[in-house]
Backbone:
């Protein structure tokens, strides 16, 4: 007979009922040596493995840096990971001490690569252990329980997680209908209507989360649209939080050699556009830029709202960044020559990896949304679902049938319905897996949907 224990809070029970845990059974993940039949899970995870070896251990030619024709082994992380006694203490020993740390190095990083209109100073930056954690603390700091957070659709699927906990705010989808480009000025009228309706229904919108470059669409907003969204926030007296985590992962493609450039909210003269700078904030994180999401180094930047920054400095104390992660990335982002090379080479590899995945999709006749930023793109699997799913099922069960068929064949992708995508058969595909795993992913998808095998050698792609 089971022994009853103390229960959960009413708040926790309501949360579990509304947002049950994901119970998808995938087993142990694929590993070429340890589990070659395991599930390739990473097509649905926004991680970039294209430069992992270069970050950890690589052989490179010194001529890239100092003009010498000398190839040497180099363990970048190992040789640049230096701890001091201050790193073994609580975080105030870094904030109030004399060792370089992310509170000093991150402002320099943003000044170098984000082209801010005004210099980013240490007082403008709150370092944290990842962007999700910082977002959750930000929402708690500006929203009361039951306040709304506006998310233009489609949106990053985990935003609701960080809106709900711990703030108990309410995610509100700003629905942009099919046929309207979500990154265009035409989207504003629909988002504005959602704000008005939510306010009238009793869920008062307090902030907008604006993802630029966009997840899951993989493109940057035009500067004028960024300004228009911030002016919308001004009209309704909202906080405007720009998630700029993919800022340094934009690239041209053969189909779009001159894509819309990314422009940070830090680079815009907000007063000139009638917007209070106090409502403008940005999230960014160098660990995404360097393909090291697991190390968890992020930052919230706000240049004209000292009360908010004081609050965030206090809230992150309960969930601080690891001093080891701080020490490692302070060294990495402080090496300007190496960062310049790494970020440029990463953009080159992103282009090659994207064009490989796009060529695969096009060869199989799949519709996809062209991308030039981030590590993923959206493609429509409707013809493949129609090919294998029982015709008598409704659309939702047919999509679930296709997902289970993929899992049976050792591959996993999620539909973007959890992003409020108006096309239910859309899936987000991450294309930045290691090259051998990406090729195997294509083969497993082809097996799942009984497709002919794509021969990349016939595509004349540039090699990584």
Residues:
């Amino acid at each position: 007979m089971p022994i009853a224990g103390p229960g959960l809070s009413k708040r926790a029970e309501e949360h579990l009922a509304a947002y049950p845990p994901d119970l998808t059974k995938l087993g142990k993940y694929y590993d070429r040596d340890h589990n070659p039949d395991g599930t390739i899970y990473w097509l649905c995870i926004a991680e970039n493995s294209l430069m992992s070896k270069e970050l950890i251990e690589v052989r490179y030619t010194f001529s890239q840096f100092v003009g010498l024709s000398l190839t040497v082994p180099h363990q970048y992380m190992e040789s640049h990971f230096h701890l001091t006694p201050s790193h073994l203490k609580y975080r105030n020993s870094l904030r109030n001490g004399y060792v370089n740390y992310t509170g000093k190095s991150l402002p320099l990083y943003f000044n170098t690569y984000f082209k801010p209109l005004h210099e980013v100073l240490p007082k403008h930056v709150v370092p944290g252990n990842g962007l999700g954690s910082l977002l959750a603390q930000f929402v708690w700091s500006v929203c009361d329980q039951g306040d709304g957070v506006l998310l233009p659709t489609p949106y990053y699927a985990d935003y609701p997680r960080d809106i709900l906990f711990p703030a108990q705010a309410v995610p509100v989808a700003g629905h942009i209908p099919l046929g309207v480009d979500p990154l265009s000025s035409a989207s504003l009228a629909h988002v504005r209507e959602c704000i008005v309706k939510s306010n009238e229904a009793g869920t008062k919108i307090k902030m907008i989360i604006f993802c630029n470059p966009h997840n899951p669409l993989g493109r940057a907003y035009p500067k004028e649209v960024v300004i228009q969204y911030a002016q919308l926030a001004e009209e309704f007296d909202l906080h405007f939080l720009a998630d700029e985590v993919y800022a340094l992962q934009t690239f041209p493609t053969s189909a779009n050699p001159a894509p819309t450039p990314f422009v940070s909210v830090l680079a815009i003269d907000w007063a000139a556009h009638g917007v209070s700078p106090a409502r403008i904030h940005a999230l960014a994180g160098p660990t995404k830029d360097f393909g090291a999401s697991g190390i968890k180094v992020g930052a919230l930047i706000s240049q004209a709202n000292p009360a908010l920054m004081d609050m965030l400095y206090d809230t992150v104390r309960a969930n601080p960044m690891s001093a080891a992660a701080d020490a490692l990335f302070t060294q990495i982002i402080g090496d300007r020559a190496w960062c310049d090379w790494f970020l440029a080479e990463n953009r080159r590899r992103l282009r090659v990896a994207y064009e490989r995945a796009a060529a695969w999709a096009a060869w199989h006749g799949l519709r996809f949304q062209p991308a030039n930023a981030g590590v993923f793109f959206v493609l429509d699997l409707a013809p493949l679902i129609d090919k294998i799913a029982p015709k008598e099922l409704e659309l939702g069960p047919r999509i679930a049938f296709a997902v289970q068929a993929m899992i049976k064949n050792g591959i996993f992708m999620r539909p973007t319905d959890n992003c409020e995508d108006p096309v239910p058969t859309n899936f987000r595909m991450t294309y930045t897996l290691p090259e051998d795993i990406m090729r195997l992913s294509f083969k497993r998808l082809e097996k799942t949907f009984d497709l002919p095998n794509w021969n990349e050698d016939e595509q004349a792609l540039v090699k990584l």
Summary: The first helix runs from residue 10 to 18. The chain has two domains: 10-54+342-459, 85-334.
